[in-house]
Amino acid sequence: MARYTSWFTFEVPPTPLQQLLAEVLQACNLEVVYHTSDYIMAQEIPGNTTFARLVVVEILTDKTLNTTTEARINVVVKNEELPLQMNNHCYQMFQQVNQAIADNRQWQLIESICG
After folding, report:
1. Among residues 92, 58, 61, which one has the least CA distance to residue 77?
2. Which residues contact 15 (CB under 8 A, 6 or more apart)?
3. In this structure, which long-range contacts are made by residues 12-16, counting pairs with CB atoms below 8 Å and at least 24 apart in sequence?
4. Model pTM greater than 0.70?
5. Does 115 have pLDDT greater than 90?
6. In order of start, what are the domains of the chain with their CATH numbers?
């Protein structure tokens, strides 16, 4: 199973953070299937790749470290594919989601860590 994680810290806009994150995921051709006040789960829309390569993205908002001006999120991108190659489908989607979060103009990125 391929699994990639990253953490982001950014300045929070007045718009609800979860709504903005859901829009970022939708822009990456992911469908939000579940969300709460601190968790979002999105899945890749079937049709462009095999079932085992379909990606699931989970975003967890760290409520313990959030302030009124900053937020920290943990992003996990995973699928059932074995990561036999470095540049596999899951990694490509991981890069796309990370780039979309980092480049979003709705917030000011303070820090990002990919693991």
Report:
1. 58
2. 106
3. 12/66, 12/68, 12/69, 12/70, 12/71, 12/107, 13/106, 13/107, 15/106
4. yes
5. no
6. 2-114 (3.30.310.220)
